Amino acid sequence: MRQELFLQRLKHALSNLPEEEREEIILDYKEYIDSAVGEGRGEEEVISHLGKPEKIAQEIKAETIWDSAEKDRSVTQFLRALAASLSISFFNIILVLGPAVGVFTLYVGFLMGSIVLSLSPFVFGFSLLMENAVFIPAEFFLSIVLGSLGVMLTMGLWFAGKKLYLLSLIYLRFNKKMMMGESH
Amino acid sequence: MNTQFKKGALELCVLALISEKDRYGYELAQDIMGSINIAEGTLYPLLRRLNKEGFLETYLAPSTEGAARKYYYITNHGKERMDQLVEEWKDFTSSVEHLLKNVGRE
């Protein structure tokens, strides 16, 4: 493979990295190939020793995506890390995507439940207004208790969510090591 | 050799070589491959990580072929890291030697 093709494939494989970072990586490899050729090695031979551009890109992306997922925590960053992890191996559809969907659904379920619970005093007030129902103290207190419980649960789940995010990243890293460890 | 194991050792070799003198990517790869067999392509991801973690810094200097080269030098933080890795390496190898001696393989 010629240098242009190698760099082009590498660039393409790195397409979801920031422009600046991608250019820097391309320059690094260009410098490497030029130095090797400058010392009398054949271009094709050097490039074949570098390995597949897609493989290199995978390694670089895995490092950088996990880094940014740790630094600035957001759903997008997390989804990127998840996608990178799925691209490592077909088995990760079972090992990563399955648990991820399960845990995420469970978490959202709990979060929704606790938010609805927090709203119970409003539901109580609303029904009182709309249906001209008789004020029942027991119901009123019940709604207050359920409401505070809901607020506390929501707050707890919010913090638990952050922990869950970090734990998932640790799992993804561990999984990456297992998957890539012996492969090259 | 196990790749994870090799990777850990590679970080130590890279830090040690760069602490001896500033080096550019290709030079570094050649110096390492003189002793250890690595996939050449994996060196830059490692250099990028060490740079991001503040162990290495870079500067550009012109080369005889014209184009500028990126040189790597070690930071104080990087030296501390290297010392720590050297310690771990020595502990590890002496434990393995001890074990081999005990089972009479050496």
Automatic annotation (TrEMBL), chain A:
Keywords: Membrane, Transmembrane, Transmembrane helix. It comes from the Bacteria. Pfam families: HAAS. This is Uncharacterized membrane protein. The chain crosses the membrane at residues 78-98, 104-128, 140-160.
Automatic annotation (TrEMBL), chain B:
It comes from Halobacillus trueperi. SUPFAM superfamilies: Winged helix' DNA-binding domain (SSF46785). Gene3D superfamilies: Winged helix-like DNA-binding domain superfamily/Winged helix DNA-binding domain. It comes from the Bacteria. Residues 14-83 form the Transcription regulator PadR N-terminal domain. The lineage of its organism: Bacteria, Bacillati, Bacillota, Bacilli, Bacillales. InterPro entries: Metal_resp_DNA-bind_regulator (IPR052509), Tscrpt_reg_PadR_N (IPR005149), WH-like_DNA-bd_sf (IPR036388), WH_DNA-bd_sf (IPR036390). This is PadR family transcriptional regulator.
